[in-house]
UniProtKB/TrEMBL annotation:
Residues 1-28 have a biased composition (Basic and acidic residues). This is General stress protein B. It comes from Alkalihalophilus pseudofirmus (strain ATCC BAA-2126 / JCM 17055 / OF4) (Bacillus pseudofirmus). Residues 1-35 are annotated as: Disordered. The lineage of its organism: Bacteria, Bacillati, Bacillota, Bacilli, Bacillales.
């Protein structure tokens, strides 16, 4: 299994557990820190 495959698999697992809103919240926090 490549790093890409492992990352994709891990991301899908997190999405199943927490939903897409979780990723949106992470993105929002990252955008606030970098600006």
């Amino acid at each position: 299994m490549s790093y890409e495959e492992a990352g994709r698999k891990g991301g899908e697992k997190v999405k199943q557990e927490y939903g897409s809103d979780h990723f949106a919240e992470i993105g929002k926090k990252g955008g606030q820190r970098s600006s």
